[in-house]
Amino acid sequence: MLFQPFDAPIGADVLDTRLEEISETEFNQLYEAWLRWGVLRVRDQQLSDESLKTFSARFGELEYAPHGKVTSEELAKIPNPFVATISNIVENGKPIGGLSNLETSWHTDMSYIEQPPTASLLYAVEVPDHGGETSFCCMRTALADLPENLRIQCVNLQIKHDAAHDSIGKLRRGHEPFNSAEKAPGVYHPALTVHPETQEPALFLGRRQFAYVDGRTVAESEALLDAIWTHVAQAHQCWTQRWKNGDLVIWDNRVVMHRRASFPNAERRLMRRTQVKATTKPTAAVAP
Q: Which stretches within the chain are classed as H helix?
C-alpha cells in the first residue's frame, strides 16, 4: 500500500486502493498511516452506505450519529443510525440531512460527550462546483506553536464543551437557549491531552463558541480561550480538502480539528459520515 504525504503537518493520500477489497495486512498499514498523519484521503471510491459502514467498523465499534436529545424509541426509528447524511438537499419540503450549506466553525466531532469518537469518516456522494471545502488543523502542531506561558496554563486545564449547539451554531433538538458559556450543558475535557495509541500530546479544544474554562469567571475564561485560539488554525497548521465525488477522508478526531466552507445553496452537496466509538475518555497529558 502506497501513501503520498501532503505538503502540510498532517495528511496523506492513499494511492490506488479499493477500500472494499483491502486485506487485513493492508488495513493495518492504513491504520498505522492514519495514526501517523492524522488525516487520510482515498479517492475514486464507490461506496454504498452499507459498504461505508462495514469499512468504518474496521476501526472499531461505530458511534451513533448525533441527533440531539432523542429517546431510544426515536433512535430505533432512524433507518441507519450509524451513517449520517450531511446535505443541503431538500426533498418534499424537508432537508434530507444536516448542516445545510452554511460555514461550520472549527470543531472536534462530538467533543461534548464523555468519550468523543476516535475516527470520523466523510464520503462525498455529490459535491458542489464552488465552495464546501473542508479544512483540517493539526492540534499537535498547534500545541507546539503555543507560547510557553500558555502551554503552562493548559496543564491541568479543564474546558467544558457545549452540547447544545452544532457546528453552524444552531441549537440542537431538545435543548433550551442560554446566553452564557457558564450555563452551557456539556462535559469537561482536558485542554492538553495525550494520544492513547501514539502517546503524543495535543491541544483538545473542541469548538470556541460557548466553551468554558473550569474554575474561572466567564470573563477570565473568555480571555484565556481567546489567547489560546489566537495561536490555533493558522495556515501552516492546516490542510484543505477540495472535494471530488468518490473521495473518502478519514481523520483522527483526537488530534485534528476541522471546519467547512460555505457553498451556494442552489448547488447540491451530499455527504455520508460515520464515526468510531471511543473506549476511553480524553486523558490529560503532562507539561510538554
A: 24-37, 49-56, 72-76, 139-145, 148-154, 218-229
* Mean pLDDT per 10-residue interval, the chain, length 288 residues: 96 97 97 98 97 97 74 66 93 91 94 96 97 98 96 95 89 86 93 97 95 96 97 97 98 98 96 96 83
Strand order in the sheet with 248-252: 2-5, 12-15, 39-42, 248-252, 119-126, 270-275, 84-87, 98-99
pTM > 0.85: yes or no: yes
Order across the sheet with 201-203: list the strands: 201-203, 192-194, 283-284
Q: In 3D, which of 237, 194, 229, 195 has the Cα closest to residue 213?
A: 229
Q: For residue 110, which of 40, 206, 34 has the smallest C-alpha distance?
A: 206
* H-only helix segments in 132-217: 139-145, 148-154
Contact 202, 174 (CB under 8 A): no
Say whether 12 sits in a helix, a strand or coil: strand
